[in-house]
Amino acid sequence: MGRSSVLACPSTEEVRFETQDAGIFRIPDVKTRLEALQSYFFPRLERVVMLLLGRTREVYGIDPFGDTVLRRRPSHRKDAREVKDYAEVFVGVCGRKNEEGLAVVHPDGTPFRYPPCELLLVVEPAGALRVSFRPFVYHVDGVYRRRVIREMRLAWQGLAPALVQARIAPNYYDAKLLESLGEPWVTWDSPPLPFPFGSHGWMRELVLPFVALYPLLDCGLRLARGEPSRLGILVRRLKASVAQWAEEGVPPLTQPPEASEEEPDLPEMESYRFLRPRKWWQVLSRDRYTCRLCGRSAERHGVVLHVDHIVPRSKGGTDEMDNLRTLCMKCNLGRSNLEEVQSEG
């Protein structure tokens, strides 16, 4: 598969996020909110991360799946499911654990077991998604920090054009905090991508920043393991891909892409307009985030879920719980289309 396939998009259902998804962060009950994140939101976001890693492999000819593990906050581990609020929610990748310790140490001299860098999809509570690279998640020793910065400076001339095309910018922490930490803490972030969005057009807004930032993550992972950096090699491959995209007429990310004619203009679901968000999530929780018709779930299949009125409101149906059920987007739209045909007949 050629490098140009990095811009290919999967099916709309696999990566669609809707306006209603932002309502997760407004669920008043923290326990219900965490359940919605774990059972509905994160499984779909992890599918996006896996797709992005696949595009990364195509561009660089390396195996990012072997070097990284998924990371999410709140954690997916059962023993870490604390009922507390989180100011930041994300899914992404970090380096694999090394029980014997890495070639980077904490200020007290103890070695790290996880590399102190990560590449994330960060979700903003207002309902937006951005790609974020964090080179120093924790306090690190000066030797490791200087090596990482040196490698980045050497590769900067080749890396900068891709970062500019992807509209990635560094975000420095508060100056007083910087002074107290004694660290050049910085994140590299793409512009926020607001909900709703699907795979066509908007997916490119995630692919380019993720692929452009991956060489920096790879550099941090290898230096943490005591291995030589291959940042220069990856930057050259990235430059070749950027040049190829330019030849193919792929526009730089200077404005939101126009909607593709292939992407359906999905109708606003009736329950979006009439149901209170609290009841919406109560229905999904009751049905275990699983479609009541086909049995597919967000956790196992990554489907988008809707709340359906069994008896439509137009025919006297109510918003009581026994008249509401969870359907996947495909089943719900199929039911709506069938009802339209029957009404026309």
From TrEMBL:
Protein's UniProt keywords contain Protease: no
Protein name as it appears in the record: HNH endonuclease
Keywords on record: Endonuclease, Hydrolase, Nuclease
GO molecular function: endonuclease activity; nucleic acid binding; zinc ion binding
CDD domains membership: HNHc
Gene3D superfamilies in the record: 1.10.30.50
UniProt organism field: Aminomonas paucivorans DSM 12260
InterPro entries recorded: HNH (IPR002711), HNH_nuc (IPR003615), NA-targeting_endonuclease (IPR052892)
Classification via Pfam families: HNH (PF01844)
Superkingdom as given in the UniProt entry: Bacteria
